[in-house]
Amino acid sequence: MRYIDYYKILNISKNASEAEIKKAYRKLARKYHPDVNPDDKEAEKKFKEINEANEVLSNPENRKKYDKYGKDWQHAEEFEKAKQQQNQYKQSHPGYETFGNFENEDFSDFFEYMFGGKSSGYRSRAKNTKFKGQDFNAELHLNLIDVYKTHSQILTINKEKIRLTIPAGVENGQIIKIKGKGGRGINNGPNGDLYIKFVINNNTNFKRNKNDLHTEIFLDLYKAVLGGDLIIDTPGGKIKLKIKPETQNGTKVKLKGKGFPVYKKEGKFGNLYIKYTIKIPQNLSKKEKELFQELSKLR
């Protein structure tokens, strides 16, 4: 691929601001637009070059790559990846003699070899060097109830379907690695890895603290005074609570083993902590008020 000087095409300096790039593009685009120059092949060619130059230079990230790598700017990420891997390898193998100095190497040697060129100098140094593929990162959004039990999901990563078993007890923000499911390696090198971050949405009335669950149960006054049974729903199913007579407001109880499953420990669970809040009856009838007055006299 020959080098195209996009700055020269737009008649601007390499230090041009974004506003200057935009202004230069608009001026030249009007001048060489096909509607202004019908049947003019040279104007049409110039118009395409102007648009290509603007697409690169008006994008700050692409402009940065172009300034550094020139005609090979579209392969900048591959070069940086290879450079990083070489440095990592050198650190872990002190006696290793590098096949090339990435800091001083002509970028074209690398790109021509990796992407179909004819650079024999780089080929002789790199033909036996394997590079690990790029690591992929993804987020998987789930509800809290979804991770109460181990289950499987089919994910599509880079058009490839991956069957993922999600263990019960996965926590919000937890990251797991799936080896070899990232980008393809270079020169038959190993594939990169896939890192999945779990984002857990708590769609329940329970607050999770690691493996423990916390919740608040509202009791009517009569149940608190007289006691009785109360059935509540939990992520693990329905539970019958035994409310003791004369339960006080703010009373806390602990149900051992009724919390959240422990990650990768089959059959182990945290605890469930319940706080009782007593609701005072409202909109009392005349008869109810009289009865409460009678009770107050008895006390």
- Large-scale geometry: elongated
The spatial strand order of the largest sheet comes to: 6-7-11-10
Mean pLDDT reading:
83
Gap from first CA to last CA: 97 Å
Beta-strand segment tally: 11
Helices and strands, in order, run as HHHHHHHEEEEEEEHEEEEH
**Number of helix segments?**
9
Tell me the strand percentage band.
Answer: 15-25%
CATH fold group of the largest domain: HSP40/DNAj peptide-binding domain
Taking pLDDT < 50 over at least 5 consecutive residues as the criterion, the unreliable ranges are: 93-106, 118-126
Look at the structure and name the CATH superfamily of the largest domain: Urease metallochaperone UreE, N-terminal domain
- Helical content band: 25-40%
> Do you know the CATH architecture of the largest domain?
Sandwich
* Structural class estimated from helices and strands: alpha+beta
| Most strands sheet | 4 strands, mixed
Oligomeric category: single chain
Number of domains: 4
The first-level CATH class name of the largest domain: Mainly Beta
Which radius of gyration do the C-alpha atoms yield?
Answer: 34 Å
